[in-house]
Amino acid sequence: xxxxxxxxxxxxxxxxxxxxxxxxxxxxxxxxxxxxxxxxxxxxxxxxxxxxxxxxxxxxxxxxxxxxxxxxxxxxxxxxxxxxxxxxxxxxxxxxxxxxxxxxxxxxxxxxxxxxxxxxxxxxxxxxxxxxxxxxxxxxxxxxxxxxxxxxxxxxxxxxxxxxxxxxxxxxxxxxxxxxxxxxxxxxxxxxxxxxxxxxxxxxxxxxxxxxxxxxxxxxxxxxxxxxxxxxxxxxxxxxxxxxxxxxxxxxxxxxxxxxxxxxxxxxxxxxxxxxxxxxxxxxxxxxxxxxxxxxxxxxxxxxxxxxxxxxxxxxxxxxxxxxxxxxxxxxxxxxxxxxxxxxxxxxxxxxxxxxxxxxxxxxxxxxxxxx
Length: 372
Ligand code: SAM
Ligand code: SF4
Fold this sequence. Notes:
11-stranded mixed sheet; alpha/beta; TIM Barrel; 372 residues; binds iron/sulfur cluster; 10 helices; 28% helix; globular; 11 strands
């Protein structure tokens, strides 16, 4: 399998002539009757069904691949959407376009107070609710989140060695993260997964140990290629360990089945990870090849930042202002205007990111400011 020293060219989906976006009727012909949900389809024929909802840009760790130790400028609190505003956006996505899943993220979502309240507001929408967290505060709230309606959780864990964890995150919190993973399992969140960003020369020597940890705990580990979204702008291609190299290293110790797992659980079609089972039947492992083999062709998601801008890709350069609609429009117009803006954004969604190409432009927000 090829190793990830450079970033290869990738294939992108073709633009389809019709349909661009299959959305609600124009406002003028609305009858006021309940609006039936219709698929939201982008210009490349991809249906959008998944919302990544960032609820804060703040964080209690300083992962080196994400943000600097000092100097991040946090958004003023009044610029963050309220939970009510966030729930309204999710409701519009679910009611009008049949969205199936929402993932709450950040920054670190557990540093925002009373997250269970947002989960309780989303639960009646009948949508699959997931959370991505660094796990530091998870042990304190895992049971309450599960009781409120949270179903699935991804906990980030990039090292099992306290010193390496401290060097990577600038905080001495490994024990709390491990306790958070245990609490999530005890609370019945299912699945519990571990996200691990691999950086060459930083934590790539722990790939097999992290895979072993996942097998012992019964949690699927998802190894993620390092993307050029660190706030410092220090990313270079030679720090990326390719998904194929990660799989080779694991396979050498814990043999993997030849073919990736197809489907298997309700929301596998939205999972960017390519998953492989261990040949001995003990669990699986996934790789997210965002750099060397992006999944843009299957992309089914949009993102809303904590200050209420809609982005159709992590690497998008365009943003659509939902907060202005939520705060400035007449209340009875807000749903329609949100829907129109969501359609406008999705119609403009591009085929895929350009990492590794000469025309690649870094977005002006970093990962924690967009919501990973
Ligand atoms: N704070 C939470 C956490 O760390 O899980 C949620 C937000 S974080 C931005 C979401 C995911 O993005 C995490 O799994 C994190 O490891 C990943 N991430 C952050 N910066 C990244 C980068 N430059 N390349 C790849 N993944 C990154
Ligand atoms: Fe915080 Fe998550 Fe970024 Fe780490 S990856 S600094 S935990 S937002």
